[in-house]
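HUMAN: I'm a chemist; might I ask for a sequence paired with its structure tokens?

ASSISTANT:
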Amino acid sequence: MDSAGADGELRRLLAIRVPELIEYQDAAYARSYVEFVTRVRDAERAATPGTTALGEAVARHLFKLMAYKDEYEVARLHLQNDLAAALKEQYPDGVTIHYNLHPPMLRALGWQRKIKLGRWFEGVFRALRAMRRLRGSGLDPFGRAEVRRVERALVGEYKALVDQALVGLDAASHARAVKLANLPDLIRGYEEIKLANVRRFRAEVRALGF
């Protein structure tokens, strides 16, 4: 964070997102994010002094693409939000907790409904959280699904597009670059809905002339 030399709103954005990326994957993953955002900020500062919209847009949307919600992240977030502890305080006489989940692997096999799982499944969540280092590697058991392959590819695709926008960046092209940097906001939802929105994102990129 200190090496980035960011200030103002950009520093606030990084201060929130860098710790999240460390927890999401590791420090090296977060460092690659900071280094790219810093490079964009420096190019923007040189081309259009006093403007920060491009650096801030990249800080927001590169994070979104890098922190996609896969099986490992869903497990981490479930464990981070200690539902059992919160319910124990609210209901001291005890409650029964079930998780209603629809794993992608079951969807791929044609299973259309969520399955109800008990508290024992928290052990699976802990195992998945510990396995997050496998994300994107050849040993990733979830990495071959189409949506996961697209999510991984989008990070490099977005960086390449932003790099393209930085070439010859000046006051005239700045607004177009900012619009490009904000386009990942279109990518929402899960599975087929997300893939459809990726296609929409790519169509908008082409419409901007990239």
Summary: The longest strand covers residues 99-101. The mean pLDDT is 86. The longest helix spans residues 27-47.
